[in-house]
Amino acid sequence: MRKVNALVLLMLTLLPSFILMKTPPVKADEGYAKVYIICLPDVGGWTMGHSYDPSKTKEGAIKALTFKERTSLPLAHPKLGKAPPFYSISYEIVTSWSQYKTIIESYKESVVINTHGERTPIPSGYSRDEWADKIADAMLKRRVTWVHTAGYPFYFSWHQNSGLQEWNINGFQRLMSHINKGNMDCWSPDSEKISLNTHAEATLMQGWYEITDAFWVERGRPLKGSDFGNYTILPIWGTQDGYMTGAIIGFFKPGERVMPEERYGFGAYIHIGTDKTYKSDGETLSDNPAYSRGYVGAAAALWTETLAFEHTETNRVYDYGLTHTELLISVVPVIAGYHAEPQPNKKEVYISFGVYGVMKTNSTSSDHFTKARFYLGGVIEHYSDGVNVWMVTDSSKDAYNYPEHSTINWPGVGKLGLKTLLLLLPMALSGECLPSHLSAALCCLLTG
Fold first, then answer.
1. Rounded Cα–Cα distance for residues 228 and 81 (Å)
2. In which domain, by residue range, is 439 found?
């Protein structure tokens, strides 16, 4: 088992001393992936003006989830050592509306694959906007990954009680508004064919070889790379400086406040925005595009699951005079991406950190602490030959160029108040990577 050590330094400037808090190692031991393939009766599959059989998308997803190759996932990942990262991949076909509802309402650290394409199932008891909010909440707070498998996402709703309704661009905009991306759309200037992104080819085709059956796609309903920037974890088809018919998007909001029980880290939105897939010659249509879309979506979801570590936390009680302060820091590292071979026999990994800080104090002052500053520093240990590990700091909205640009405002805290803060360093594709061992320093400065 390999570990990531994160050191948290908390300095309270209104108190006469420093508080040093060191978290236990972040464990990345036996991996697991819990995948739920949504294939509900009567909903059907729909993409770009025509129907398809969602059971074929289900079959493609199952094939990607039951690979036999031993090199399918990044071999330098700390969940691996020299073995595959997932000793346990479990999947379940969801045909029950009540189970689907429960998964989105409460499940954690899971992958949800919607085989219905442009149709988003809405269970009874929810309006479609409320359900989009619930899906966003699952991705933001419970590390759920949502896989969209065809065409324009959330373009139609299929309510359990009333059936089909057009949602137009409003459905996807409602979902993306939760990460401040509510004005974007997925319209394409043309139907040009585009190929698998070179990073995706190097990453996903290490073991998911059937991706060659979807090496080319029609542009379809793409994401605009400029809309997402550092939210893009990996383009699948297309590029970040243009259109991305397929992409893995980190679903997070830097500076978001959450409750302590919600500190699972953020999930991802996986976009498969085409209907037609072509083999590597660019001319031969895939034997079954619905199957290929499900295969690529599930492969991307499994790869995304390898980016996360289990979170670790530590707490500390500090008494000074009449002031009693309780502190809890939780750290959730994620892999920002990787280059398998940026140069011969070299692998690189870039790490970003999610930081959760909770403070409880009996101070009667309403402005005892008003600001918090976080920054990353320290030494990264290279203990595996051929692997370089780097911390991603300059991609963070709130935690770079310490101390000038790293301030997060906290409202005043009253007597026995509880303050909860989440800082997520955005995932960046500044350097794709593969990890080894990391010893990092994470510092938090509170000022009055």
1. 33
2. 2-28+310-447
Mean pLDDT computed over 48-75: 81
**pTM of whole model > 0.70?**
yes
Q: Which among 305, 330, 363 is the end of a domain?
A: 305
> Quick one: pLDDT at residue 252?
79
Instruction: Give dist(CA 375, CA 337) in Å, integer.
Output: 21
In which residue are the tokens 């892999």 written? 335
Cβ-based neighbours of 83, under 8 Å, separated by 6 or more: none
Q: Look at residue 402 and give its three-state secondary structure.
A: coil
Is the pLDDT reported for residue 443 higher than 60? no
Rounded to 5 degrees, what are φ and ψ at 259?
-85, 155
CB-based burial, 71-88: b 16+ in 10 Å, e otherwise: ebbbbbbbbbeeebbbee
Residue 24 and residue 35 share a domain: no
d(CA 297, CA 153): 14
Domain boundary residue, one of 256, 284, 305: 305
234 & 325 share domain: no
Same-domain pairing of 37 and 23: no
Q: Which stretch of DSSP H or E encloses residue 103?
A: helix 97-106
Same domain, 321 and 277: no
Q: Give how many domains the chain has, as a whole number.
A: 2
pLDDT, one tens digit per residue, over 391-430 is 655 444 343 333 333 333 333 333 334 444 444 433 332 3
Residues of the chain with pLDDT > 90: what percent?
43
Q: With contact defined as beta carbons under 8 Å apart, do 237 and 194 qualify?
A: yes
Concatenated DSSP letters for 128-142?
HHHHHHHHHHHHHHS
Q: Band of the pLDDT at 300, cuts 50, 70, 90?
A: very high
Number of H helices, E strands in the chain: 7, 27
Cis peptide preceding 24, ω within 30 of 0: no
**How many Å separate Cα 416 from the centre of its chain?**
34
Region of residue 282 (phi > 0: left; psi between -120 and 50: alpha; otherwise: beta)? left
Cα separation, 231 vs 257, whole angstroms: 19
